[in-house]
Target: Prenylcysteine lyase domain-containing protein
Amino acid sequence: MKNLHLVLSLILISTATATAVAVDSESSSPTVCIIGSGIGGSSVAHFLRSYSSSAIGTIRIFERHDVVGGRMATVTIAGETFEAGASILHPKNYHALNYTKYLNLSVRQPPPSESDSSFGIWNGRDFVFKTLSSTSNLPIFQRVVSFANSVLIFFRYGFSLFRMNSFVDTTVNNFLKYYEGFESRPVFETVDEMLKWSGLYNLTTRTLQEELLDAGLSARLIQELVTVITRINYGQSISISGLAGAVSLAGSAQGLWSVEGGNRQMAVGLINQSDVKLHLNEEVESVSFIEQKYQLNTTKGKSYSCGITVVATPLDELKIQFLPGISIPERKLQHTYTTFIRGLINPAYFALGSVSEVPQLVGTVETPDVPFSSISVLKQHKDNDMSYKVFSRRPLDDAMLDQIFSVRNETVKIDWAAYPHYHAPEVFAPFILDSQHLYYVNAFENAASTMETSAVAAENIARLILSRLTGQKSLTPVKLKSFGDDAYDVHADL
Ligand SMILES: Cc1cc2nc3c(=O)[nH]c(=O)nc-3n(C[C@H](O)[C@H](O)[C@H](O)COP(=O)(O)OP(=O)(O)OC[C@H]3O[C@@H](n4cnc5c(N)ncnc54)[C@H](O)[C@@H]3O)c2cc1C
Model:
């Protein structure tokens, strides 16, 4: 893998030319309007500014809410703040890592006591598997318990665990191609092309279950551990695509991290650093292509003229009107109901005698008998006072919550239109929604939905815009102006 910062400092030679798509006749530096201030929209702004100092004029970001970050959001419950949406990053999520460095943010890794938290798989009647929990704060004791748990997991799932890791490692290694330098990495006009180039496309044509059976995993591992993970990370079963499944499994790896104080600070920082005009509380209602320009009309009754428009939000549940109309494949979003509770779990619900016997992470298998996908302890304040996060596919009413929890001092419920409902084979929307300059970052979400995949798609969209503006497939010359010397060290250690 290349050191991207070195690569980006190179003067890149155009190897192929494409037809430049005219923007507007008066200005050579068009206004870019971005709909959505999540990691996707903020990354587009960041990469446009980083890759070109002159080709782009004003950048406007429109956000319908009063805060930036989208699905990166925090929730405050009983005075404590937690990630409400996207919470974990993989150690090889290099854009997120580099944003964190560039923006002087701090990496948060779970303390050892948290990462070794006890875990159980619940089927609605019994725990089919349960690890030991450490009752001591002594590091030596915790290490013994951790070792014993590794043995327990190996006894239950055997060598299939190694096959699962190998499946995930291969996928992650293919994904790392997206950090290669410009001289070896093309600009992609379609998601299909982007996935085929990295060797990931075939994984989107088959289900995770098919892929894992072919990889030699046991039925028990797939029905239990893998199912638990896909239910936690995507709220879905093992019939999701192989690629979404591999990404979901990678989200249970060692070394996961988050941004201290909230992942959304990445979007805040990128927007602050990218000379952006931010329009908060301003929802884009329509996008009309009139006389070679996009006219964006917003809920504030205002109109904006933009040479380039980037949609950086899933269009599936939105009512933005496009003129002329656009055509994208139908896609359903998976809703994930996230319920935060400050209180105490009820051990009797799990047929257990005490709270300490209930695993700190309760995962579940596919069965209609369980109303939730997972319950995890976010923080133990005292023995009888904890913060929990519950994921479920349907809303949990108070009567149900009162069965699962014996004490509920505060409850916060969020209904997320969380990610695509994955299926195989996936069909992808275009990155370029018309033949002009209307782009769609979230076309890539059918491959996998994560903060990093949004950033990777956004980086490609920024390159696509610049290459189509200039008519060149590669950019010439490009030098990062705003990053520090080591900002793009893709070998950064956490
Ligand atoms: C519960 C949950 C848990 C998750 N866990 C993880 C995780 O642990 N790790 C991980 O990497 N990913 C996780 N994800 C996925 C991750 O959050 C997303 O893939 C990623 O944040 C998508 O970013 P985005 O910028 O593409 O879209 P979004 O974050 O959805 O941003 C789109 C923005 O556009 C705005 N918008 C929409 N329509 C308009 C309009 N008409 N006008 C103006 N603004 C508009 C929205 O308000 C929003 O702010 C999780 C998601 C959820 C919901």
Residues 1-18, 476-494 have pLDDT under 50 and may be disordered. The pocket of flavin-adenine dinucleotide is lined by residues 35-41, 62-65, 70-72, 85-88, 283-284, 312-313, 318, 320, 336, 338, 416, 418-419, 442, 449-452, 454 (CB under 6 Å). The chain is about 30% helix and 20% strand. The longest helix spans residues 451-470.
